[in-house]
Amino acid sequence: MKARPNTRLSSQAMAFVLAGGRGSRLKELTDKRAKPAVYFGGKTRIIDFALSNALNSGIRKMAIATQYKAHSLIRHCQRGWNFFRAERNEYLDILPASQRVDETKWYLGTADAVAQNIDIVDSYNVQYVVILAGDHIYKMDYEIMLQQHVATGADVTIGCLTVPLAEAAAFGVMDVDKEGRILSFLEKPAKPPHIPGDPAHALASMGIYVFDWAFLRDLLIRDMADPNSSHDFGNDLIPQIVRQGKAMAHRFAESCVTSGLEDEPYWRDVGTIDAFWQANIDLTDFVPKLDLYDNSWPIWTYAEIVPPAKFIHDEDGRRGSAVSSLVSGDCIVSGSEVRNSLLFTGCRTHSYSTLEHVVALPHVVVKRKADLARCVIDRGVIIPEGLVVGQDPEEDARWFRRTEAGIVLITQDMLDARARTLG
């Protein structure tokens, strides 16, 4: 495809979102759903951030590769992302692993997920492909990254976070020269290389890659034929390009979208219970690190038709109130106290109950006199009357999943097992 003058590069690009992983570190939160389908921020799902970034950047062609327990993710995208119109040259394809190449093969790795759908990407007739992970929270203008990719003539441009050197060992780290060319790609190195001129920081991969489609297509075909490859971008394709081609680093700070309230570029991998809880609770801060109220860069999602939140009862000890909290639509806070918490759509909290630093996923019911602190409650859970969580670590760990940081995950299966044991 020949680029037309005076057009945004994003109009010649497609976003390929890798959304097939379970996210096993989220434990029971991903027993029934893939990590990208996990709820976040009151009404959205994690995948909405990558998709919204692409849409807001001007990309109107997208594909989502799914694999592990994909039903809730597919249903969410069908309901919330069904506004693309083919007659406007807009597309969103959901690509479950479907034995397209071989009856015995699912997606073997991140690169294989793209390789098995080469014919579909070809049908888009695009010049550039933006490979995205579907499981991170951030706001980013991919058009800026595309512009750098074209200006530098790179074979691949890799989105990079600036992280403290002491924390870099947990990431895939880029060793770069002064121009930003990647000299080596090191997976979780014991001694990470620092940024030239900045000995306190390193560049870590965000799992975001920009390619010319013609270049990537050829690379994928050769990788599919290699029996020694694990067919993964990070393990195979990127190191190969670093050795034999031109790989450039793109710093997230240059394309991070802020409203002016954020004091630093915001990116989170909410891949653990602790990180998931913290990122949601952070949204209740007076000035949150991530501004969800920025209408110039909206996070699109499935907008359910629900009534407003309601607060009822006004007696001492039985007052429906919420302080420093996010309360979504269709919630009823009835004679209970909610502090520094986030209630997703359709939650009910009943009289004399207290919630502090609680993340309650959709349609949670908290019955009377429950006292909950520092916990994550899975969708549809019914908290029994008088349950106390967050005061006795041993009691919490006996019935629920308690992290080393003291965050408690509560699911209905855990509560049912507790009820059977207690009779």
UniProtKB/TrEMBL annotation:
Key words, A-Z: ATP-binding, Carbohydrate metabolism, Glycogen biosynthesis, Glycogen metabolism, Nucleotide-binding, Nucleotidyltransferase, Transferase
GO MF annotation terms: ATP binding; glucose-1-phosphate adenylyltransferase activity
All residue ranges annotated as the Nucleotidyl transferase domain in the record: 15-284
Pfam families in the cross-refs: Hexapep_GlmU, NTP_transferase
E.C. number(s) listed in UniProt: 2.7.7.27
Residues that coordinate or bind alpha-D-glucose 1-phosphate: Y107, G172, E187, K188, S205
InterPro entries (alphabetical): ADP-Glc_PPase, ADP_Glu_pyroP_CS, GlgC_bac, GlmU/GlgC-like_hexapep, NTP_transferase_dom, Nucleotide-diphossugar_trans, Trimer_LpxA-like_sf
Residues at the site labelled Could play a key role in the communication between the regulatory and the substrate sites: Q67, W106
Keyword Repressor included in the entry's annotation: no
PROSITE patterns: ADP_GLC_PYROPHOSPH_1, ADP_GLC_PYROPHOSPH_2
Catalytic activity: alpha-D-glucose 1-phosphate + ATP + H(+) = ADP-alpha-D-glucose + diphosphate
Pathway involvement of the protein, from the record: Glycan biosynthesis; glycogen biosynthesis
Residue ranges of every copy of the Glucose-1-phosphate adenylyltransferase/Bifunctional protein GlmU-like C-terminal hexapeptide domain listed in the record: 307-410
Biological processes, Gene Ontology terms: glycogen biosynthetic process
Subunit-structure text: Homotetramer.
Role of this protein: Involved in the biosynthesis of ADP-glucose, a building block required for the elongation reactions to produce glycogen. Catalyzes the reaction between ATP and alpha-D-glucose 1-phosphate (G1P) to produce pyrophosphate and ADP-Glc.
Family as reported in the entry's similarity comment: Belongs to the bacterial/plant glucose-1-phosphate adenylyltransferase family.
Protein's name according to its UniProt entry: Glucose-1-phosphate adenylyltransferase
Lineage: Bacteria, Pseudomonadati, Pseudomonadota, Alphaproteobacteria, Rhodobacterales
